[in-house]
Amino acid sequence: MAIAAGMALPAMAKAKDRAQTVACISNLRQIDLAKHQWATDKKKPAPAVPTWDDLQPYLGMGNGRIQCPKGGEYTIGPVSTSPTCSIPGHALPKTGQAPVATRRQ
Ligand SMILES: [Zn+2]
């Protein structure tokens, strides 16, 4: 039993890690979308940097803040760039594809 658990745990931790990464990237995608909607609505230029208050109506989270499931810090950044998470690997793919799902560890 102990051996089986010892082998299963790292695999489970890895699966959890992957699920958190996928959830975080989905958050980043929402933030990115919110930024573009905000910029369009407010006629803001690409270098403009929205605040969380600006994005709140577009995120549809009520008063709750969108958060990284692993506790990373989000940086909204200018409209022209993708938002980022402070956790390594939590990043929007530049191509718009989803390499996370197919990436080999
Ligand atoms: Zn994250």
Which percent range describes the beta-strand content?
Answer: under 5%
Question: How many domains?
Answer: 1
Strand order of the largest sheet: 1-2
Ligand inventory: zinc ion
Count of runs of 4 or more consecutive helical residues = 2
Distance between the termini: 27 Å
Choose one word for the global shape: elongated
**Roughly how many Å is the radius of gyration?**
17 Å
What is the H-and-E element order?
A: HHEE
Helical content band: 40-55%
Query: Are there runs of 5+ residues with pLDDT below 50, and where?
Result: 96-105
User: Major sheet, described briefly?
Assistant: 2 strands, antiparallel
- Beta-strand segment tally: 2
What structural class results from the helix and strand content?
A: mainly alpha
What does this structure look like?
This protein has helices at residues 2-42, 52-59; strands at residues 74-75, 84-85. The chain is mainly alpha-helical. It has one domain. Strands 1-2 form a two-stranded antiparallel sheet. Strand 1 (74-75) and strand 2 (84-85) form a beta hairpin. Helix 1 (2-42) crosses helix 2 (52-59). The longest helix is centred in the first third of the chain and has 41 residues, at 2-42. It is elongated, with a radius of gyration of 17 Å. Bound molecules: zinc ion. Zinc ion binds next to loops.
Question: How are the secondary structure elements laid out?
Answer:
Layout: H1 2-42, H2 52-59, E1 74-75, E2 84-85
Antiparallel strand pairs: 1-2
Bound molecules: zinc ion.
Zinc ion binds at residues 24, 68, 70, 72, 85, 87, 90.
